[in-house]
Task: inverse folding
């Protein structure tokens, strides 16, 4: 069993708990950055030494490390500073309850990981599926239950991180290339969201998505 | 052998005779309350003593299982029956003594009625334990329900009491209906699952399963204190007794998971709701739900252990669960009796209006605090002995190697720990708000002396709890395995339950418990000696420099647990109304909090509204014309006929009976087959 | 793992004698961090000595528990001391399930203090007791999750074997999980002993206290009992964390004895450093934090299960 991989995946599992209980946006963004860095290290941990690291492989890894661990969090931080929000006040679901829900979802992910045979068949670590599913559900959960648009963007980012944990951990062929494409998408998305959120904030003085419902009429 | 059988029969007859005729006679003498009182109480006490002489040897397996044919019905007393009879008898004895004090100045002229129902309730509970077959069980179950209903409704002049009694009666009858269904269906092949569900619902209604528990916090505060003591400490157990004795055979795994889930949710729900209560007896009632939950948790773990062939887990879970019932019976019995004494002295049960009773009732205060600490599972109390066994069962599950069981067991252990911590919180609140600090509302300046009779009953139970600690290892080794084997559910496996595991732990805990008691005594003596040579001043409470603290500045019970209740969403939102503090010189500020039972407002109220709405719809059929009714009967008959023909025809063609669900599928699809 | 009962008894003696010194170390560290000279390392001993010589002032409101509580608290801790495997030597008093006894003894001490605090009828002590009861109830779950983790990692149910078993040092995941669990145990230790960032033992404002607010009405030998119990509790919980991290097969017992003492005082330095550089959390945040600790302990358990190959049946 690949121990470095397991360590990273374990850290990702704990990160999900921290993410869901962080109330300060800056703190949350930092956690996302750490998640991005860990994710960037993931290919290094799970590639077979026999394969040899081609320069493309290293490049893709390096790019994703920079974008997910550095650029995107920086953009998010920049946006929060521009629009001057600090905290995620009044989440739809309280922090304690969120923790319990995420714990339950993680438990479910572990159960699913022991049931679904793909993980073993691929010779991947038994932690990959739990970690990926748990991260995906954390992302979805944040998107559903938080009010600030910026947290929702983060939720989306975390969701995507979960997908890429799955891809990398399962060593899907050409996964990294797909990953690169996705990365560009996400980058564009966060960029646009950042601008949009800033503009919304400028015209409405807040970024509470619940209040945007009124615009539908 | 023959002698023991004969003497057992004589004792059994004596118990029935004493309780029954004591009841009838005190009813006949109801015009002379003094005489009725002594008749009823003495016969109850003697009956309980005779019963103990019968049940104790049976539970300890000194005599073999006894079968009696009495009144044309069959009764049997084996270890399991004896085990569940003992709390009834002990509590019955204590409650009878306590009632003598409690009933003074409390509907004194109706003592004959009280003792009639009191004795018959005891008798019915004993008969439930002694029932050999379904018929006897159902008869005595119904008798128990009705007689205890009358006791709950004893102070029927109060509106709340009447309402609570109705709820209780409904719960009793619903339980009985489910039990009848269970017995009817358990003979019908193919309906075992339904029968088991009915059985769990029927017995669970008595034992206070979560959601089914709603009658409990209503009935206990309404009943006189000795009656609540009997009901909470002994009658709830009978639900578990019923499950162990009469539930149709079911796989260990399924039963284990069910009981584990029920137990965990019951333990947490019960204690979280107990935290938020302001009525002392209601708090105790919710704590009973918690303790039943803990017992179920133990039993669930034990059944899981059986299903895993894990001997240590099985015996620790099952034995710990049963042991907890006894410990809970003694401790909760005492607490309810004490709540009666408190009620007699203050005339209220709302703990936010009490306080400072410890000075008027020093002995009751000490008893209440020690029993409350013990019931929170703290060593050196006896409830810790059963809780540690349940923890051991859970941790055997953690070590068992099965991942699903590991996850369940660790959650069960953490939940049990949480409920223990919350129980400590709830009982701190109860002790403090009732006995400690200063009186929160003006009280009768003349303190009532503590009633000797009530104190005697309370002391008796507490002493038994203490003695229980000494005997628990013996109980564990020589009594519990035999008791468990008598349950058809467990005994059917021919699977030896050895109590080897855990007895060393119990002995160690017992020794350390007494070491703790000795150490506390020694340190207190040391401190006393140290201080006797020093100056000992008295002053007012240090309130951070404020020299005139008043009673109204104290934390009330509600305030004490408000952060926790808030945390569990009990006192947020519409449950709370506030007049906030305003301005620099605030006039009046107030908070009022009502705590509603989620079982009631999430399940039963919507359900009853739904029922009402359906009934409203159905009223349209109610036209009043006889012809229409006959037509409806005709239609129903024809529909039934068609159903019977349709289901029986293909069944005749299938060569052998099939198991239920699959069988029906086959029958439905049979005509399509060539 | 070589066993030498002598070192266990030496460890017990060290716990009983050196516990107040740990408080001194914490205070000294704090003072060093902010550039003061600070009180002497032995100051807690002087305080205890002073308190035991004094008389007592008792509030007239009390009806008894106030006088009993210190003795009960101290007895509970004096019993709890017996179950830790000092210097990784198995305790002679160990029995299967003593971990629960240990945890519940701490609970007994707490119960006694809370009842004692409420006995005074003081609003401040009521507030302290209310907070204590809230946080301790929630800590209990996390503590038991950690015990569950230890039980699984050592395949044993007594505290001695749980804490003294050699780590499966060839599996990094398990080591990571042990460190994670030790971190949780450290947090539990901070909460149980009312240290910053969960409670501030040295604030001047009663409104922001938990534990200290509960003992406002004690004086003389009673206060001495309580201070000594608090020191003992701090020592015990720190030792718990240290022993979790100290593998039993590292060195001969004598060296382990020195190592575990050093570890405990290092723990004191860490506590002091944390207190010097961080502020107290908001009370409202604490329940969430404790729940997070519980969840993390469960994840540590899951990692161990998978790491030791119990992963997939």
Result:
């Amino acid at each position: 069993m690949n121990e470095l991989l397991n360590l990273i995946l374990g850290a990702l599992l704990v990160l999900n708990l921290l993410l869901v209980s962080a109330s300060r946006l800056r703190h949350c963004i930092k956690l996302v950055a750490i998640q991005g860095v860990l994710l960037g290290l993931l290919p290094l941990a799970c590639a077979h030494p026999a394969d040899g690291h081609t320069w493309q492989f290293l490049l893709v890894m390096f790019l994703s490390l920079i974008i997910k661990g550095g650029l995107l969090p920086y953009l998010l931080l920049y946006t929060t500073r521009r629009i001057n929000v600090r905290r995620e006040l009044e989440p739809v679901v309280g922090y304690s309850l969120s923790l319990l829900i995420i714990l339950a979802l993680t438990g479910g992910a572990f159960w699913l990981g022991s049931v679904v045979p793909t993980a073993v068949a691929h010779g991947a670590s038994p932690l990959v599926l739990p970690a990926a599913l748990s991260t995906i559900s954390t992302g979805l959960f944040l998107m559903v239950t938080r009010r600030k648009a910026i947290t929702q963007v983060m939720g989306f980012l975390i969701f995507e991180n979960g997908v890429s944990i799955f891809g990398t951990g399962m060593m899907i062929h050409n996964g990294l290339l797909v990953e690169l494409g996705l990365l560009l998408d996400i980058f564009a998305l966060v960029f646009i969201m950042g601008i949009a959120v800033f503009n919304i904030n400028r015209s409405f003085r807040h970024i509470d998505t619940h209040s945007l419902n009124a615009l539908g009429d | 052998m023959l002698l023991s059988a004969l003497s057992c029969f004589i004792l059994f007859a004596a118990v029935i005779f004493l309780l029954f005729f004591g009841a009838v006679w005190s009813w006949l003498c109801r015009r002379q309350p003094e005489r009725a009182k002594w008749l009823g109480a003495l016969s109850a006490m003697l009956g309980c003593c005779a019963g103990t002489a019968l049940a104790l040897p049976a539970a300890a397996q000194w005599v073999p299982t006894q079968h009696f044919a009495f009144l044309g019905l069959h009764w049997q007393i084996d270890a399991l029956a004896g085990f569940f009879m003992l709390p009834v008898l002990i509590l019955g004895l204590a409650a009878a003594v306590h009632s003598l004090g409690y009933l003074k100045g409390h509907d004194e002229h109706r003592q004959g009625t009280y003792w009639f129902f009191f004795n018959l309730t005891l008798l019915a509970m004993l008969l439930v334990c002694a029932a050999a077959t379904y018929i006897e069980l159902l008869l005595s179950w119904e008798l128990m329900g009705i007689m205890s209903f009358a006791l709950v409704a004893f102070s029927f002049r109060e509106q709340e009491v009447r309402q609570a009694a109705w709820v209780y009666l409904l719960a009793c009858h619903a339980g009985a209906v489910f039990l009848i269904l269970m017995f009817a269906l358990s003979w019908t092949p193919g309906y075992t699952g339904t029968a088991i569900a009915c059985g769990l619902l029927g017995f669970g209604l008595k034992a206070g399963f979560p959601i089914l528990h709603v009658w409990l916090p209503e009935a206990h505060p309404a009943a006189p204190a000795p009656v609540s003591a009997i009901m909470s400490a002994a009658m709830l157990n009978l639900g578990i007794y019923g499950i162990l004795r009469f539930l149709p055979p079911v796989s260990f795994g399924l039963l284990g998971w069910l009981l584990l889930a029920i137990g965990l949710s019951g333990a947490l729900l019960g204690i979280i709701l107990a935290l938020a209560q302001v009525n002392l007896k209601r708090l105790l009632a919710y704590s009973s739900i918690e303790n039943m939950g803990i017992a179920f948790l133990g039993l669930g773990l034990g059944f899981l252990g059986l299903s895993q062939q894990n001997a240590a887990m099985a015996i620790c879970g099952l034995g710990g669960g049963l042991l907890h019932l006894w410990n809970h019976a003694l401790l909760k019995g005492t607490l309810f009796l004490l709540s009666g004494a408190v009620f007699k002295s203050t005339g209220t049960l709302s703990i936010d209006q009490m306080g400072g009773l410890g000075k008027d009732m020093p002995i009751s205060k000490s008893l209440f605090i020690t029993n409350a600490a013990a019931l929170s599972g703290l060593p050196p109390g006896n409830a810790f002995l059963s809780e540690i066994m349940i923890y051991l069962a859970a941790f055997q599950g953690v070590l068992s190697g099965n991942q699903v069981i590991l996850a369940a067991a660790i959650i069960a252990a953490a939940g049990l720990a949480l409920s223990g911590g919350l129980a400590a919180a709830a009982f701190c609140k109860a002790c403090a708000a009732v006995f400690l600090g200063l009186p929160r509302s003006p009280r009768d300046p003349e303190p009532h002396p503590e009633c000797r009779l009530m104190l005697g009953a309370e002391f008796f139970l507490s002493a038994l709890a203490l003695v229980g600690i000494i005997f628990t290892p013996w109980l564990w080794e020589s009594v519990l395995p035999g008791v468990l084997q008598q349950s058809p559910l467990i005994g059917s496996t021919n699977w030896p339950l050895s109590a080897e595991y855990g007895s060393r732990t119990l002995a160690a805990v017992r020794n350390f418990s007494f070491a703790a008691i000795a150490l506390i005594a020694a340190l207190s003596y040391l401190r006393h000696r140290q201080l006797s040579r020093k100056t000992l001043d008295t002053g007012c409470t240090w309130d951070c420099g404020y020299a005139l603290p008043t009673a109204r500045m104290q934390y009330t019970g509600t305030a004490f647990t408000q952060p926790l209740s808030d945390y569990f969403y009990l006192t947020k939102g519409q449950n709370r109304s506030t007049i906030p503090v305003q301005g620099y010189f605030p006039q009046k500020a107030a908070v009022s909090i009502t705590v509603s039972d989620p079982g009631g407002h999430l399940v039963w109220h919507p359900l009853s509204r739904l029922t009402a709405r359906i009934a409203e719809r159905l009223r349209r059929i109610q036209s009043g014309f006889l012809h229409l009714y006959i037509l409806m009967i005709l239609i129903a008959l024809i529909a039934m006929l068609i159903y019977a023909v349709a289901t029986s025809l293909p069944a005749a063609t299938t060569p052998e009976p099939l198991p239920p669900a699959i069988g029906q599928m086959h029958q439905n699809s049979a005509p399509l087959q060539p | 793992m070589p066993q030498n009962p002598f070192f266990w008894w030496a460890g017990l003696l060290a716990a009983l004698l050196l516990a107040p010194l740990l408080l001194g170390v914490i205070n000294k560290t704090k003072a060093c961090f902010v550039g003061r000279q600070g009180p002497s390392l032995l100051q807690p001993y002087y305080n205890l000595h002073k308190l035991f010589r004094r008389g007592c002032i008792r509030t007239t409101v009390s009806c008894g528990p106030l006088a009993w509580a210190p003795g009960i608290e101290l007895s509970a801790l004096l019993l709890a001391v017996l179950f830790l495997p000092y210097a990784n030597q198995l305790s002679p008093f160990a029995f299967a399930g003593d971990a629960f006894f240990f945890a519940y003894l701490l609970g007994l001490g707490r119960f006694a203090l809370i009842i004692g605090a409420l006995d005074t009828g003081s609003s401040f002590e009521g507030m302290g007791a209310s907070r204590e009861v809230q946080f301790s109830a929630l800590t209990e779950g996390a503590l038991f999750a950690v015990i569950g983790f230890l039980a699984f990692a050592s395949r044993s149910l007594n505290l001695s074997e749980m804490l003294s078993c050699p780590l499966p040092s060839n599996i990094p995941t398990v080591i990571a999980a042990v460190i994670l669990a030790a971190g949780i145990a450290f947090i539990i230790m901070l909460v149980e002993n009312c240290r910053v960032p969960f409670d501030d033992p040295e604030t001047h404002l009663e409104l922001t206290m938990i534990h200290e607010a509960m003992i406002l009405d004690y004086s003389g030998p009673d206060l001495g009992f309580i201070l000594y119990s608090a020191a003992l509790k701090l020592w015990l919980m720190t030792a718990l964390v240290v022993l979790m991290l100290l593998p039993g097969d590292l060195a001969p017992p004598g060296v382990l004895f020195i190592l575990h003492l050093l570890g405990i005082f290092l723990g004191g330095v860490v506590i002091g450093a944390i207190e010097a550089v961080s502020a107290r959390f908001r009370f409202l945040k604490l329940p969430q934090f404790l729940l997070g600790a519980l969840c993390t302990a469960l994840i540590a358990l899951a990692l161990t299960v998978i790491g030791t190959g119990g992963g997939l049946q």
The CA atoms of residues 21 and 94 of chain A lie 9 Å apart.
